[in-house]
Amino acid sequence: MTAHTTSPRPSLRLAALTHRWPSVVGFVAAVGIFLAGADRVSVALVVAIAATCYVAAAAFSLPSMAWAWIPLSFVAVFAGALVELDPLVATAVAAAVLVVVGLLRGAARPALTLEVAGLLIYGAIAVSALLLAPTAGLVLVALTLVAHGVWDLWHLRRHRDLVSPSLAEACVALDVPLGLAVLVAVLV
């Protein structure tokens, strides 16, 4: 009698995939953004929105608010476009409003300070990338997105109380593959 090796039942594979839905969502978003023609402006906007999601969670002291901020950030960008405001500027204005809301609500200062610091660092680098030559700027903003993936992973491992773990996981699966794909596309 020979040993018979079978693959896992389809229901087990589906259950494993269902458990990793944030990674699937993030990766699908990364592929979609890349295929849509990721340029330095769109990648910088991804960085800005990702960092602002964390500020939203801290401002409301509600980890799941990071997920809610994703569609709200698109509303802010769309509203900004109606008054001819650059998408990055609209995102910055929305982030400033989030900080004020957080301060008025009495959000935990250490959490809000941490997330605002992250936003300022990642945002400043992303905006700086727009001031460089197109290729150099795209490389810098892609590296910034990969670095934000490390920030996501750090939150996923250490600060599950600040940001929804599912959001941090989705962001890792968005930021790192998108940033690396852009780097490969630029450098090859």
Short description:
This protein is mainly α and 188 residues long.
Oligomeric state of the chains present here: single chain
Distance between the termini: 52 Å
Q: Percentage of helical residues? A: over 70%
Gyration radius, in Å: 18 Å
Spell out the helices and strands N to C.
HHHHHHHH
Domains, number: 1
Number of strands: 0
Low-confidence stretches: none
List keywords for this structure.
188 residues; mainly alpha; 81% helix; 0% strand; globular
Summarize the helices and strands and which ones pair or pack:
Elements: H1 10-19, H2 21-35, H3 40-59, H4 65-82, H5 87-105, H6 109-131, H7 134-158, H8 165-187
Helix pairs in contact: 2-8, 3-4, 3-5, 3-6, 3-7, 4-5, 5-6, 6-7, 7-8
Describe the fold and architecture.
- Keywords: Membrane, Transmembrane, Transmembrane helix.
- By secondary structure, the chain is mainly alpha-helical.
- 81% of the residues lie in helices and 0% in strands.
- The chain has eight helices and no strands.
- The longest helix has 25 residues.
- It is globular, with a radius of gyration of 18 Å.
- The N and C termini lie far apart (52 Å).
